[in-house]
Amino acid sequence: EQAVVSTQSTGAASQAGYIKVNWRKVNDKIDDLKEVQFLKDKISDLTDEISEIALNEDTLVLENEGKVMATARRMYDHMKHNAATSGSFTAGFVLGILFA
Q1: Rounded to the nearest 5 degrees, what angle is found at the Cα of 11, between the Cα atoms of 6 and 17?
Q2: CA 7 to CA 1: how far, in whole Å?
């Protein structure tokens, strides 16, 4: 609110001839501030996204663990959690083929 009043009073004083304002520099500074704010917002978004990835078990890569080992670990964990379901399905499928 103060910045708007200050800008308006500066504009009025400039038009009245009391002060000289280089509006190109003012606009350049405003553009720079907008760019800095955009970058801060982008960094904040990326930090949040990285935090979500780092805390997610499925995408977690342990320190000193390569991508291949991390993928193998995730596959093993997935198979371990789904062993009963996949085993029952496979057994039923084989029995269905045998008795068909």
Answers
A1: 125
A2: 10
| Residue 15 contacts residue 7 (beta carbons within 8 Å) | no
Alpha carbon distance 100, 82 (integer Å): 27
Query: How many helices (H) does the chain have, and how many strands (E)?
Result: 4, 0
What residues contact residue 58 under an 8 Å CB cut-off, 6+ apart?
Answer: 74
Q: What is the 3-state secondary structure (H, E, C) of 4-27?
A: HHHHHHHHHHHHHCCCCCCHHHHH
Q: Of 61, 63, 82, nearest to 73 (Cα)?
A: 61
User: What CA–CA distance (Å, rounded) separates 33 from 45?
Assistant: 18
This prediction has a pTM of 0.37
Share of the chain above pLDDT 70, in %: 74
Split at pLDDT 50, 70, 90, the class of 1 is very low
